[in-house]
Specification:
The complex is a heterodimer of chains A (about 110) and B (about 170). The longest helix of chain A has about 30 residues. Chain A has a domain of about 70 residues: Helix Hairpins (Orthogonal Bundle). In chain A, helix 2 runs antiparallel to helix 3. Chain A contains three helices and two strands; from the N terminus they run E-E-H-H-H. Chain B is mainly α and about 170 residues long. Chain B folds into two domains: about 110 residues, NADH-ubiquinone/plastoquinone oxidoreductase chain 6, subunit NuoJ (Four Helix Bundle (Hemerythrin (Met), subunit A)), CATH 1.20.120.1200; about 40 residues. Chain B is built from six helices and no strands. The chains are: A mainly alpha (about 110), B mainly alpha (about 170). Chains A and B meet through helix 1, helix 2 and helix 3 of A and helix 1, helix 2, helix 3, helix 4 and helix 5 of B.
């Protein structure tokens, strides 16, 4: 049985989260700047956070919100380390273009 | 339509529009600012869903700390405008097409999903600070992951400091 809280069915939140997630996927595939790719990954994480909070509210279970809390924790730590790696790459190659990093290519 | 639906649509359009502008705009500083607007819209959605603590945490952590870190890095690397030559058109078209295909696939899969409802004793106050805090600090709840996340932060800090030291030749 689908239920509606304050006039918004859960399906709308699912569609919204899917749209923002796919915009993030498009950003990762579409851009060449490493910083923009990183920001698209953050966009994807936020889409998932939104969906988890929506379900947590609709089902009355607080595990969703606790999990969102931990996802934010991990995202913050990952951004710190990721940007440090990015700075090291820039120091070596003088460019943030990801097509420059093709040393593994055979 | 009720007021709440107008509010939902307004927040959703702001979020989707600024998310699109993040990946479309060429200037990285503009992309960061659009992403901050997206985070504000998502924090508005959290407040709409009565998750007050997570809305504030999102504003402080994401829009306040992570985006400022991005801006520091962009300023330090001096990326005013994208100076690299862009991809050729064929990979761009394929990228947009595959992302739209993913979106259609997910929407179709999730369209007919029936949400199983738990019994009617649903608590609408689970997002408030004291209720969420009770769950986080409960011994049988999530206290162990909460304390381990502090070790995660310590390792991230050590890693970031170590990685960004200049090499002494």
């Amino acid at each position: 049985m689908k239920e509606v809280i304050i006039g918004i069915p859960i399906q709308w939140y699912i569609y919204l989260s899917v749209i923002i997630f796919c915009i993030g996927v498009m950003g990762v595939l579409f851009r060449r700047n490493a910083i923009i790719i990183f920001m698209s990954v953050e966009l994807m994480l936020n889409a998932v956070n939104l969906l988890m909070v929506a379900f947590s509210r609709y089902l009355g279970d607080s595990s969703g919100q606790v999990f969102v809390f931990f996802v934010m924790v991990v995202a913050a730590a990952e951004v710190a380390v990721g940007l440090a790696i990015l700075m090291m790459i820039f120091r070596n190659t003088k460019s943030t273009d990801i097509d420059v990093l093709n040393n593994i290519k055979w | 339509m009720q007021i709440s639906q107008y509010l939902f649509f307004f927040l959703s359009f702001v979020a989707i529009f600024s998310a699109l502008m993040v990946i479309i705009d060429k200037n990285p500083v503009h992309s960061v600012l659009y992403l901050i607007i997206t985070f504000f819209a998502i924090a508005g959605h959290f407040l709409f869903l009565n998750a007050a603590f997570l809305a504030i945490v999102e504003l402080i952590v994401y829009a306040g700390a992570i985006m400022v870190l991005f801006l520091y890095v962009i300023m330090m690397l001096n990326l005013n405008k994208e100076v690299e030559p862009h991809k050729k058109n064929i990979p761009k078209i394929i990228a947009v097409f595959s992302a739209c295909l993913l979106m259609i696939c997910l929407v179709v899969v999730l369209k007919g999903a029936e949400v199983q409802m738990l019994p009617a004793s649903r608590n609408n106050n689970i997002g408030l600070v004291e209720n969420l805090g009770k769950i986080l600090f409960d011994k049988n709840g999530y206290m162990l992951p909460f304390e381990i996340s502090s070790i995660l932060f310590l390792s991230a800090m050590v890693g970031a400091v170590f990685l960004s030291k200049k090499e002494i030749n």
